[in-house]
Task: inverse folding
């Protein structure tokens, strides 16, 4: 089985196993410009042409003025045009002090940046009449989050493959939830995805990095650790939330 075939099979398995897409869905994809969101958009666009179930896809790229990482929006537009997917680009920010830290908040910059991006996704999805928001988190992301919550927050929880929002008529889906990061990285190189112009300055200095290192240690102890953790999440009903 080729790399493309394996990822495509895992993607379609996730759609069915977690019932991520319904007939006549309109889906908004959060397109950061990283390998994961590009792969997600490509696969959803490809799947939408099969017509069963029938659904449509649009994409949103959020530019954050005061967080210095950047994606070539010309490339994103070309990528979306090739797939036949409408692209929306929104620019936003949050207040910072002169040294770059969030102003008037005890929350770290990563939290505020993420929240602002989600806010723009939620707003546009409702404006466009989208029922679903698709995010490019893969299996490694979901496992890292579980380990991070267990280690630093004291509870067993993660980003579910499907999450129905309680305060708005939206459902968040993660169709790459069965795909491994190494496979997506290799696929991105194979497809020639352009890399982001600048990486996020905070991405190496978070508890998520620690959780990733912890997961690597687990896999050295037991090559089947990935599947053991995943089965535990499924057994505890952490992958679908209503």
Result:
């Amino acid at each position: 089985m080729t790399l493309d075939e394996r990822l495509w099979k895992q993607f379609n398995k996730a759609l069915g196993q977690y019932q991520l897409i319904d007939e006549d869905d309109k889906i908004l994809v959060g397109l950061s410009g990283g390998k994961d969101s590009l792969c997600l958009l490509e696969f959803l666009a490809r799947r939408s042409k099969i017509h069963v179930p029938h659904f449509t896809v649009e994409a949103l790229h959020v530019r954050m003025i005061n967080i210095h990482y950047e994606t070539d929006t010309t490339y994103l537009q070309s990528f979306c045009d090739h797939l036949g997917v409408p692209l929306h680009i929104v620019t936003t920010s949050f207040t910072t002090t002169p040294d770059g830290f969030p102003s008037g908040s005890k929350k770290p910059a990563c939290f505020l940046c993420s929240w602002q991006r989600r806010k723009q996704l939620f707003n546009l999805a409702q404006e466009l009449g989208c029922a679903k928001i698709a995010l490019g988190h893969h299996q490694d992301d979901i496992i890292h989050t579980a380990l991070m919550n267990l280690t630093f927050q004291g509870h067993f929880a993660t980003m579910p493959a499907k999450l129905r929002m309680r305060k708005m008529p939206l459902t968040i889906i993660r169709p790459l939830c069965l795909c491994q990061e190494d496979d997506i990285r290799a696929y991105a190189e194979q497809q020639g995805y352009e890399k982001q112009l600048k990486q996020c300055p905070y991405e190496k200095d978070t508890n998520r990095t620690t959780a990733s290192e912890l997961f690597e240690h687990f896999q050295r102890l037991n090559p089947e650790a990935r599947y053991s953790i995943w089965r535990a999440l499924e057994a505890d009903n952490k992958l679908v939330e209503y």
The CA atoms of residues 28 and 125 lie 6 Å apart. The longest strand covers residues 55-64. The chain has a mean pLDDT of 90. The longest helix spans residues 109-128.
